[in-house]
Each structure stands twice: as structure tokens, then as C-alpha cells.
């Protein structure tokens, strides 16, 4: 099971990387209907995510961490409520 998760993470990284081997996250969306307030995203990327009064995650600064950290924060979400897009509008994750 852990191997499958690692393979999925590696695949997401490969899909998000360009020729310069840099992730290119241009847009972060939190699906409030899916968010359960687990706050794993806040723990991993506190400069990017916070919880509001309803205990739902929201983006406070889309440049508050490097792209790899933002991807890890999105991957940590138990409900996959964090959607990541590249500059062309293609969904990178999930």
C-alpha cells in the first residue's frame, strides 16, 4: 500500500515538473464542500493555508511556500479537497 502511495506521489511530481525540474503550480483551489478541517495542509504549509471560522481550509497566500511543499500539503488532505492547476489551467493534482 505504501509503495502505491509513493508511486502516485512520484507520478504527480513528474506530471507537474517542467524541463527545469521545477513544479509549476499557478492556481490553488480548496473545495469547501470536500474540506473536513483536518488541517494537515495548514500543518505542512502554514504560509499558504489557514482554517476559517467554519473550520474549512482556505488559501491565504498562494506563494507562501515552494511548489513542492504545496503539492505535499495537497497530497496530505484526506478528502483531496485541494486542487492544483498549472499555468495553462491543467489540473496537476489530484
What labels describe this entry?
alpha+beta; Alpha-Beta Plaits; three-stranded antiparallel beta sheet; 32% helix; disordered N terminus
At a glance:
The chain has 94 residues and is an alpha+beta fold. The protein is 32% helix and 18% strand. 22% of the residues are buried.
Tell me how many strands there are.
5
User: From the coordinates shown, what is the CATH architecture?
Assistant: 2-Layer Sandwich
Question: Count the helices. How many?
Answer: 3
Shape: globular
How is the largest sheet built, in terms of strand order?
1-4-5
Predict the CATH topology: Alpha-Beta Plaits
- In this structure, how is the largest beta sheet organized? 3 strands, antiparallel
Mean pLDDT comes to 86
Q: Order of helices and strands, N to C?
A: HEHEEHEE
Low-confidence stretches: 2-7, 16-20
Helix content: 25-40%
Question: What is the domain total for the residues?
Answer: 1
The radius of gyration over CA amounts to 13 Å
Q: What structural category arises from helix and sheet content?
A: alpha+beta
Estimated share of beta-strand residues:
15-25%
Determine the N-to-C terminus distance. Answer: 18 Å
Question: Mind telling me the CATH class?
Answer: Alpha Beta
